[in-house]
């Protein structure tokens, strides 16, 4: 489990407390500039807190080495550039770096890479140069890299950004499979319908504050959407329809 209490960071994060446990997919929602990416970096120990504490598996994140953190939490950042035309398989293998095995894979690491490639349906692309992939294929490759770490928790920052609807659902289905297998995931999303369909719990952010945290039924309401996004919306069993600005 990852647990955060009373996080503060400059004027970006005013007060934030949350937890993510194995077996749940948590969607982090909020408008641009709400502090979502900064919050993820604080959870991972990539930025220094001004206040509060973060624990991963009961241990303060600040006391974990980068390799220890990476073995506990796989991270899929918002920006995922490919700097050279490496093979898809080699990029997925970078997910084993925290195990000291990105260069020469032992049998355990090679098996983890193959499981991630199979889970993301990349077998037919494994030897392709990464810079020749489509947007949807590249998204699955980066997700496979995170899954190859076989960490118990996964944090993903906008993993479906710029993808067409088919590939958005495909990536979310892969995250759901990870959670169904016992993992825990915290995922930043902007699509409310995707969040309602796939998430077990929703965390809503606005201006550096967590303003709601609960199930889809409890928090996916017209009132919450109006307060957080400033838009009028109709919420039904079929999804969310945005009507316009409040």
TrEMBL record:
Positions of the ABC transporter domain: 2-232
InterPro entries linked: AAA+_ATPase, ABC_transporter-like_ATP-bd, P-loop_NTPase
Keywords: ATP-binding, Nucleotide-binding, Translocase, Transport
PROSITE patterns for the chain: ABC_TRANSPORTER_2
SUPFAM superfamilies in alphabetical order: P-loop containing nucleoside triphosphate hydrolases
One MF term in the entry's GO annotations: ATP binding
Source superkingdom: Bacteria
UniProt keyword Translocase, yes or no: yes
PANTHER family noted in UniProt: HEMIN IMPORT ATP-BINDING PROTEIN HMUV (PTHR42794:SF1)
Function: Part of the ABC transporter complex HmuTUV involved in hemin import. Responsible for energy coupling to the transport system.
Protein's name in the database: ABC transporter ATP-binding protein
Record organism: Sphingomonas floccifaciens
């Amino acid at each position: 489990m990852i647990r955060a209490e009373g996080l503060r960071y400059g004027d970006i994060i005013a007060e934030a407390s949350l937890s993510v446990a194995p077996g749940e997919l948590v969607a982090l929602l909020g408008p641009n500039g709400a502090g979502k990416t900064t919050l993820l970096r604080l959870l991972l120990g990539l930025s220094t807190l001004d206040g509060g504490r973060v624990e991963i598996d009961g241990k303060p994140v600040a006391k974990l080495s980068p390799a220890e953190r990476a073995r506990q939490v796989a991270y899929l950042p918002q920006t995922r550039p490919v700097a050279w035309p490496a093979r898809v398989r080699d990029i997925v293998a970078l997910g084993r770096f925290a195990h000291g095995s990105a260069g020469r894979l032992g049998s355990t690491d090679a098996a983890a890479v193959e499981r991630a490639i199979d889970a993301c349906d990349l077998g037919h692309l494994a030897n392709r140069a990464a810079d020749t992939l489509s947007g949807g294929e590249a998204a699955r490759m980066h997700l496979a890299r995170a899954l190859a770490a076989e960490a118990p928790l996964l944090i993903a920052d906008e993993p479906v950004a710029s993808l067409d609807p088919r590939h958005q659902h495909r990536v979310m289905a892969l995250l759901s499979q990870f959670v169904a297998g016992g993992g825990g995931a915290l995922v930043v999303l902007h699509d409310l319908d995707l969040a309602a369909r796939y998430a077990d719990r929703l965390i809503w952010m606005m201006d550096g504050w967590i303003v709601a945290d609960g199930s889809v039924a409890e928090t996916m309401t017209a009132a919450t959407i109006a307060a957080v996004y400033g838009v009028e919306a109709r919420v039904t069993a079929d999804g969310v329809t945005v009507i316009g600005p409040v």
